[in-house]
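Encode chain A's predicted structure.
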Amino acid sequence: MSEKKINPDNIEAFSSKEVSSLENALKLLKIQEGKVLETPPIVYEILWRFYKDENILLSQIKYLGWKDFQVWFVFPEYKLWKKWLEHISWVQMTLARFQSLYTWIILSIKQWTINSELSYDVCLRNMCNVLYRGWTITHRKVLFPWEVWTLTLRIDDVLKKWPFYTIQTEFVKTKDCFLFWKETCVLEDRFVNLSD
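Encoded structure for chain A:
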């Protein structure tokens, strides 16, 4: 039996040309006025490449200093079930968690908040190639739609070990956060070293 490999042909999600033309694409994109007001442009620039408009839940971001930041979410009602669910689902909280990770890791690399050989463009092009090596997450609140919920994150420097770039993020336990503990993300160096 042959070994299965994720993305064996090293296909990037987006070409460097697509990433560099992002600003023009955003100008041409017809975005609802509410979406522009809710989601900061820098966050939208990252998440728009990966998620459909209606699935971008992150509505605000605040840098707290050092390697910490806080994000706010407003969740819509959960509509994947046949029956009405009055609270926010684990699926929606997982989506919020991933959006927090993508946003903060990529912003930290762009703004040199953390040490990394990775570039902003490489990260944008390879969001779909990031693997989640391990996580320990505790959900601590029942959430309800159309209310504001927060997460606070702390990020470590990117470590290069074997053929992987590894980064660990901590979801900090505060009285307002709906989950806490740690998550480790990895990106294989074969995606980083591709020439344009």
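The radius of gyration is 17 Å.
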